[in-house]
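Input sequence (328 aa), recorded before submission:
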Amino acid sequence: MPTNLPPEAIDAERRYRAAKSVAEKIACLEEYISAIPKHKGTDKLRAALRKRLSKLKASSQTRKGVSRQVSAFHIDKEGAGQVVVVGPPNVGKSALVASLTNATPEVADYPYTTWTPTPGMMPVKDIQIQLIDTPPLNRDYVEPELMNLIRRSDLILLVVDLQTDPVQQLEDTIAFLQEHRIVPLRLKDRYPEQRRLTFKPLLVLANKSDDDDSDEDFEIFLELLEDDWPALPVSAATGRNLERLKQVVFERLEVIRVYSKAPGKEPDLSAPFVLKKGGTVAEFARKVHKDFFEKLKAARVWGSAAYDGQMVGRDHILRDGDVVELRI
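Predicted structure, token format:
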């Protein structure tokens, strides 16, 4: 927070975050705003909260005529994969998502500006990957639906602030996820009893690594970690390593791009089909159309075949960048 708030403001803020209904959220938020002292140090906070209150009231009017409301935490997967960006307050998650995608999450220099998840599409090569900015993970209160969103994702980007105790931030966030039965995939061997656990690939982003001078801070951060976590220094402010991050996310999702080619025509290189690594010609055919999958006899492949245009069977394993001509 930008200033020390009185106990009644802190209490109202806690009740707002714990509120279940929109009406209860509105009441608590109005009380929270009224309890914040009015001076220059709280201008930004009060403006952000008034904006949130306006959105809640508009949402309340809309919901009156709707019998069933879809949760803000239920976000359909789009693109080549769904990646959630998580972490403690004020580490720059929203700024990173805004820098990498077309999304416009609220970005401010005080914590808890993100109250609901905000999806955006990140262009990588010639495909799109969905990034979702999420509310800060906080032990005082967490939306159960947020944890379900994380469980449904394909990859977790855990953001820490390189300049503000990143080791503690990482350890606290990993512990928080584990308390909710979400475990980094690299720790799977430590859990012989794996029932009711969700294992997810995870990449640590050390944000606020603005220039080469911060490389030493990043190396110290890695040396202090108890585990060998996959980590990347990045900066939402300067854009440092963001292109590298895109490539790493693509690799961590373990997907490939496959291009279609109609007989006698040039391949369509504008919109690749996305398959998981190890995908076969048959799986590609299913992506194109179920009729191709059902009637497929063979295919010609450029790229992973022994020679360009080689005829292969349904079980041929494709690689990233392959061009495929289906034969039925």
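Checked by second reader. DSSP finds ten helices and 13 strands in the chain.
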